[in-house]
Every structure is written in structure tokens, then in C-alpha cells.
């Protein structure tokens, strides 16, 4: 059976390897914008074919479909989904993992997502306002007295989020003026008319639940947590993710079984609302980027229309059942036949990037990187290739996160393995990574307990999700 994978990062490498290792005997074909060495290995091992092209182009995808005649497809990244690549598979009669363009709006537009949650009264929703005028957004920030999160109104690769918390009242005006100056910068990231979304700020530990659905059945995967900030101890600019953790079991150390089930219901309710709103079934991954807050308990920060990266690298190795077959069942709308088995032991993922990432990607581009994957496996680390191109037998960086290293074990043990394997990587530039990933979960568990006490009190008082009118005029928006 032939499968066509669209995408070129570490997430797609993990998927390609899962497909190549499947007992189903898949032949893996791939369309990427560059030759990812990990995907290339999976393609060659299974007797498939690798082609380069524009992964956002329906024409290039249609050409690959005609050439390879796959039995099903898998679309990895979000941008191809926003451009209707899953629609192109279905237009050609090919089952595919990935929502149609209309369904992918749940990730592309934060405003559409928030409006949907309010319209269908889905738990975990936040108050918000959206702005087409950057001047009006700046004025709102200065005039409004509460804590806010300011975000670009559409998906821009995890960039541009700013937060102000008025814990110290005497700093309020200075902080607000500083934040209002960031509005032009944030708005410049957005191409559409609606530029800025401002949400009420909430606080608590974050986590992600990825759910596979074929439009009928929902299959929740183990939780993961992403580490967004570029530098040690969670400081610096936000990135696509500098690492992640998953486990033990299907939970995380700071999330309970009840909170997992509540999160799953939120994701299911959202997928059903998308179907109601668009008239089309949602098929593929729908992933809730959540925060445990005193307002709701499980609270939605945003949704993904695909698997997160680097969360994928933490999750797929922990699935002991045939993940490739789960993808096939999803594409063919037979997910009710699926059986999910998850390893108990956790994983820790560490992303490795060239110096310059994320703010000066031109500096991080075109560097040669050196590693021995087999030796690293002997030390207990898996390696997924991200923004690295295979060029004439060399591994050349492309400006983003180059590698994702994965280790099993309790969180401290896995981190020590990653310390060892990181030393086995070299490049003709300095490498950037975080060593604290997986080593601060005790602090997050303490924070979760404080939040849990507060939101459970709200449940007892029947005030879950209730707060004072948020906007200056007394309205929600």
C-alpha cells in the first residue's frame, strides 16, 4: 500500500519513520520543499520516491498524486492545510489525514476559533476582542485596567504574543504604554484585515491534547507539553518549540485523569461545532493547546489542525501500537477499528538549533551539521531531522530547529541521556538548545495544585468560567 506524505520537518520525519516501520508494509512517498534526510531514509527503505516541490501548491500535490497514485495521504504541517491541500487529495478521490481548508480555520484564525467557542458555548473559552485598527487596539490596551494577552489574529508560527499582568499597580501605565507600542509589530505579521486579538489573561501550566478523528470516532493520544521560549528557564522570544515532554502513561505529572477527560470533551465539542458551522466533517488531527486555570480548569489557548512540533517527537515513540495503521484508519474513516497502546515511561525531547534562531534566521542558514545517528541511538537517543537539508552527502541547516533528540526514562534520567547525546553533535557554528526541559515538572505540579484548588472551589459555587464583564463598555467583545 502506497502513502504520500506532505511536509518536510521533524514531525513529518517521525510520521515517515512510523509508516516505514509499520507491519502493514507501506511504501512511503514524500513531497517536501527540501530533502529531509530522515524522510529520505524512510522513503528509500520502503522503495518509495521523494520529490521536491511547493508543499502549499495544490498543483504540485495534484502532480504527485497523478505520478504516485497513493492509497492514502498524510498532510503534516498547518500551512498546506490552510491552502487546501487535504481538499486536493479528496478531490482526486484519495483518503487523507488532514482537515479540509474550512476545518483548518480553527487554527488559522484565532478570532474564528474564539467566536466558534462562544457561539456553541464550549467550556474553556476566554473573553476577547478583535481589531482591524492597530490604533484602536493600542488605545484599548492603554485604557483597559485588567491583565491581557495580545496576539496576532491569525497563525504566524508561534510569533508575536505579548502579555501584560497588572500585579503591581504602580507599573500599570508604563507596562501598558510599552505593550501598546508592540501592537504595530504584532499587526505587521498578519496579512488579513483583522490584525489583533486581545484576550483576558489566564495563568497556569500548559499542555496539549492531540486527538485523531475520522469525522465519527475520536482517538485521544497521550498528553504532551511544549516549551516555547528560546532560552533556558523559559525566557527569550517564543519559537515553534524548543522541546517537549510526554507521560507517564497518557497523562502528565500535573494533570489528572478527570482533567484529561474534560479536555477531551472540549476538543470533541469543538470538532462537532466545526462540522455544524462548515457543513463538512472534521477529519485528521485536532489538538487543543490548553492551560489549567482557576477560571475553567482546562482552558483553551488555541487549537492546532495538525500534530504539534516538537510534541509529535515526544508522542509517536511512546505509541507501541501501529501508528502508521492508525493514520490509515483515520484517512479511510475506519477509526472505530483502532486500538491504541501507550508505553508507560515518559519521553523528553530537546530541539537543537543553529545560532541565530529564532530572531536571525539568515545567520542560522547554510551551516553544516555533523552527527552519528547510530552512536546516539546506542546512548539511548532517537533523532528526528527538522530544518536540515540533505545536499550532496552533507547536512545543511535551513535556519530553524535542525534536530529533535528524544530519550525515554523518568524525566531526569531522560534528560541525562540527552545531555550525553547533545555533546555528540557538532557544527561549523554554535548550537542553541535548552537543558531545563523535563527538569521543572515539580514546580508545575505545585502550580497545578494551587490552580486546581481555585477552580474546584468555583465548581462548588457554580461559578466556573464566570468573571466580571471584561471590556470597558461592559460587553464581551
TrEMBL record:
It comes from the Archaea. It is an enzyme of class 6 (ligase). Keywords: ATP-binding, Ligase, Nucleotide-binding, Purine biosynthesis. One of its GO terms (biological process) is 'de novo' IMP biosynthetic process. GO terms for molecular function: ATP binding; metal ion binding; phosphoribosylamine-glycine ligase activity. PROSITE patterns: ATP_GRASP (PS50975). The keyword Iron-sulfur does not apply. This is phosphoribosylamine--glycine ligase. The lineage of its organism: Archaea, Thermoproteota, Thermoprotei, Sulfolobales, Sulfolobaceae.
Amino acid at each position: 500500500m502506497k502513502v504520500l506524505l506532505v511536509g518536510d520537518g521533524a514531525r513529518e520525519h517521525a510520521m515517515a519513520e512510523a509508516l516505514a516501520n509499520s507491519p502493514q508494509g507501506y511504501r512511503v512517498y514524500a513531497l517536501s520543499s527540501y530533502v529531509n534526510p530522515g524522510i529520505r531514509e524512510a522513503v528509500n527503505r520502503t522503495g518509495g520516491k521523494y520529490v521536491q516541490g511547493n508543499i502549499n501548491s495544490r498543483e504540485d500535490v495534484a502532480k504527485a498524486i497523478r505520478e504516485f497514485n497513493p492509497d492514502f495521504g498524510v498532510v503534516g504541517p498547518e500551512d498546506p492545510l490552510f491552502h487546501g491541500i487535504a481538499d486536493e487529495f479528496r478531490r482526486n478521490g484519495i483518503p487523507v489525514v488532514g482537515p479540509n481548508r474550512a476545518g483548518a480555520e480553527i487554527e488559522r484564525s484565532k478570532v474564528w476559533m474564539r467566536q466558534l467557542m462562544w457561539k456553541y458555548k464550549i467550556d474553556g473559552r476566554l473573553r476577547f476582542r478583535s481589531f482591524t485598527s492597530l490604533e484602536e487596539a493600542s488605545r484599548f490596551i492603554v485604557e483597559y485596567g485588567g491583565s491581557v494577552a495580545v496576539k496576532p489574529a491569525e497563525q504566524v508560527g508561534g510569533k508575536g504574543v505579548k502579555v501584560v499582568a497588572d500585579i503591581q499597580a504602580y507599573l500599570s501605565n508604563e507596562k501598558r504604554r510599552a505593550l501598546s507600542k508592540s501592537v504595530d509589530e504584532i499587526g505587521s505579521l498578519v496579512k488579513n484585515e483583522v490584525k489583533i486579538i486581545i484576550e483576558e489573561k489566564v495563568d497556569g501550566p500548559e499542555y496539549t491534547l492531540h486527538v485523531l478523528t475520522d469525522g465519527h470516532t475520536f482517538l485521544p493520544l497521550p498528553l504532551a507539553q511544549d516549551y516555547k521560549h528560546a532560552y533556558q528557564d523559559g525566557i527569550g522570544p517564543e519559537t515553534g518549540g524548543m522541546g517537549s515532554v510526554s507521560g507517564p502513561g497518557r497523562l502528565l505529572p500535573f494533570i489528572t485523569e478527570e482533567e484529561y477527560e474534560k479536555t477531551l470533551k472540549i476538543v470533541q465539542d469543538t470538532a462537532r461545532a466545526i462540522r455544524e458551522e462548515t457543513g463538512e466533517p472534521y477529519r485528521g488531527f485536532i489538538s487543543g493547546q490548553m492551560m489549567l486555570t482557576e477560571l475553567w480548569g482546562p482552558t483553551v489557548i488555541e487549537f492546532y489542525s495538525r500534530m504539534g512540533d516538537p510534541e509529535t517527537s515526544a508522542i509517536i515513540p511512546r505509541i507501541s501500537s501501529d501508528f502508521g495503521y492508525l493514520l490509515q484508519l483515520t484517512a479511510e474513516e475506519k477509526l472505530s477499528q483502532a486500538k491504541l497502546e501507550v508505553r508507560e515511561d515518559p519521553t523528553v525531547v530537546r530541539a537543537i538549533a543553529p545560532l541565530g534562531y529564532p530572531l536571525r534566521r539568515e545567520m542560522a542558514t547554510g551551516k553544516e551539521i555533523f552527527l552519528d545517528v547510530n552512536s546516539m541511538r546506542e546512548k539511548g537517543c532517537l533523532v528526528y531531522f527538522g530544518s536540515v537539508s540533505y545536499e550532496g552527502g552533507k547536512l545543511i541547516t535551513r535556519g530553524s530547529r535542525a534536530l529533535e533528540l528524544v530519550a525515554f526514562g523518568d524525566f531526569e534520567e531522560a534528560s541525562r541521556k540527552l545531555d550525553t547525546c547533545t555533546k555528540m553533535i557538532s557544527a561549523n557554528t554554535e548550537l542553541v538548545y535548552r537543558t531545563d526541559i523535563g527538569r521543572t515538572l515539580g514546580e508545575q505540579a505545585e502550580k497545578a495544585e494551587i490552580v486546581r484548588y481555585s477552580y474546584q472551589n468555583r465548581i462548588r459555587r457554580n461559578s466556573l468560567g464566570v468573571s466580571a464583564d471584561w471590556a470597558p463598555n461592559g460587553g464581551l467583545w
